[in-house]
Amino acid sequence: MIATPPDFDTRFFRSALGRFATGVTIITTESRTQKIPMGLTISSFNSVSLDPPIVLWSLSRAASSLVHFQKAERYVIHVLSATQLHLAKRFAYGPQADRFNNQALTRAPGGTLMLDDPDCSAWFECRNMTQYEAGDHLVFIAQVERCQRNFHLPLVYHAGDFDLTPSTEPISND
Length: 174
Ligand SMILES: Cc1cc2nc3c(=O)[nH]c(=O)nc-3n(C[C@H](O)[C@H](O)[C@H](O)COP(=O)(O)O)c2cc1C
Known about the structure:
Helix content is 13%, strand content 37%. The protein has helices at residues 10-17, 66-71, 85-93, and strands at 22-23, 25-30, 37-42, 46-49, 54-60, 74-79, 105-107, 113-115, 122-134, 137-149, 156-157. It binds flavin mononucleotide (FMN).
């Protein structure tokens, strides 16, 4: 069946989509041959299946890391907390080559490169199962092999900004 052409432009569509508040993640892996750390900020993460445990996220075809995530056997999805805004910005706006500067790293139990940061709200070590082409993005489907979680306040993204993120400062009455 042929889709009806949209009666809105991309800018309006983006603005409407921005009404949906999301959490924020950083996804890390390594390039397969040279083992260079790769990572980026992603808000399109979502759950798919509980049993077996499956999640998804989508990556722009224009992303410089696309080919590395397509080839990766595994990657780690880190759910960011309210105190990690600087990381979300660095992994979205900074050059790929600088994102891991002074960043403590470790390995998930399956050997996948990940951030060594106790402030993450959760992390999921994932096996790269399938990718689907969908317009200007690729949808990645992954099987979760291991995960951990904390109870930190979440980093929240809404209407193109991080302004709904709960404050970690005490609320003043003046
Ligand atoms: C809060 C936030 C969420 C983002 N979510 C996504 C996403 O879901 N998919 C995507 O392709 N890019 C997303 N981006 C943009 C990428 O993080 C950004 O384009 C990054 O520089 C891509 O890295 P690369 O080109 O080195 O692969 C998001 C950016 C921000 C600030």
